[in-house]
């Protein structure tokens, strides 16, 4: 039997890194989860156990800490680009670096006191290769939203297995995962574009009179692309957090769409991409 090595990469996943900047008594916090993944001349490592081309995952973790100390941590996209470029440019055996960062937001309570409220997480995935090509995908996850009006679902296919009743007034709730691809890496401010995209997603969710979560997804992507000229593609993952009216008739009570059972699972999972007509090829951006 003849076999060969296929695509491979390796790295250190989920290096938790907190950086404190002390501005006198006022402190600033960056709380990150950094995952690095490298690929390159790794044939020998897999085939014979020769590790001469391997930059240890332990070193990758240390590099995240060291570059955070040396350069500070600004926007996560810039820190990810710095790390990715470092691995590719410092090691000839490494041809491609992928750096993924999650950022946990802390809200200030005092000069050096913070509170984490909400589960929302800011994300980015950066790729950098030995030819100097780089891509940046920014995003957010666990942004939980709900509309208690303005959502309908009817007109769908009905077959012998369909029991769902059409509705013209339901709760629409989801936990948004959104990722958006920047057209280039010369972005004036990743922080500003993050705020713009986040605001557009929330506005579109709230403003759209929804005939389905699919329609809301498209409206959210379209609004983000309209608001932010530096991005060319938005990918959204929207789990449908079903709210079912509880049947209160056994207790002699009406339920005029006021009391709901929130189903945990199964849940509808609506996923889609919205792109500019002239979006350039994504290359390795989504890998
Ligand atoms: O917005 C929705 N889209 C669906 O495709 C779907 N399917 C379903 O059962 N409920 C819903 N809601």
Automatic annotation (TrEMBL):
Keywords: Oxidoreductase, Purine metabolism
Active-site annotation: 12, 57, 242
One Pfam family per UniProt: Uricase
Annotated pathway: Purine metabolism; urate degradation; (S)-allantoin from urate: step 1/3
Binding site residues for 5-hydroxyisourate: 57, 153, 170, 214, 240
EC number assigned by the record: 1.7.3.3
Coiled coil: none
Entry binding sites for O2: 57, 240
Cited InterPro entries: Uricase
Reaction catalysis annotation: urate + O2 + H2O = 5-hydroxyisourate + H2O2
GO molecular function, one term: urate oxidase activity
Protein family according to the UniProt entry: Belongs to the uricase family.
PANTHER family per UniProt: URICASE
Cross-referenced NCBIfam families: urate_oxi
Protein name: Uricase
């Amino acid at each position: 039997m003849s076999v060969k090595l296929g695509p491979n990469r390796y790295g250190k996943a989920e290096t938790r890194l907190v950086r404190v900047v002390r501005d006198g008594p006022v402190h600033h916090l960056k709380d990150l989860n950094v995952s690095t993944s490298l690929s390159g001349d790794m044939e020998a490592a897999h085939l014979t156990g020769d590790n001469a081309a391997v930059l240890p995952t332990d070193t990758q973790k240390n590099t995240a800490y060291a570059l955070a100390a040396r350069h500070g941590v600004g926007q996560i996209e810039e820190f990810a680009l710095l790390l990715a470029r470092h691995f590719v440019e410092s090691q000839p055996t490494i041809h491609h670096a992928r750096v993924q960062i999650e950022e946990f937001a802390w809200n200030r309570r005092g000069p050096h006191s913070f509170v984490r409220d909400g589960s929302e997480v800011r994300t980015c995935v950066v790729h950098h290769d030995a030819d100097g090509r780089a891509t940046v995908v920014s995003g957010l996850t666990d942004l939980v939203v709900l509309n208690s009006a303005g959502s309908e679902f009817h007109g769908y296919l009905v077959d012998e297995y369909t029991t769902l009743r059409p509705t013209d007034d339901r709760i629409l709730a989801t936990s948004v995962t959104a990722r958006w691809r920047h057209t280039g890496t010369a972005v004036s401010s990743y922080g500003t574009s993050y705020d713009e995209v986040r605001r557009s997603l929330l506005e579109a969710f709230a403003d759209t009179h929804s005939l389905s979560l699919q329609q809301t997804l498209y409206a959210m992507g379209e609004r983000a692309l309209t608001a932010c000229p530096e991005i060319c593609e938005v990918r959204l993952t929207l789990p449908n957090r079903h709210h079912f009216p509880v049947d209160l008739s056994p207790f002699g009570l009406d339920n005029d769409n006021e009391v709901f059972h929130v189903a945990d699972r199964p849940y509808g999972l609506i996923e889609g991409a919205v792109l500019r007509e002239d979006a350039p090829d994504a290359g390795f951006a989504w890998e």
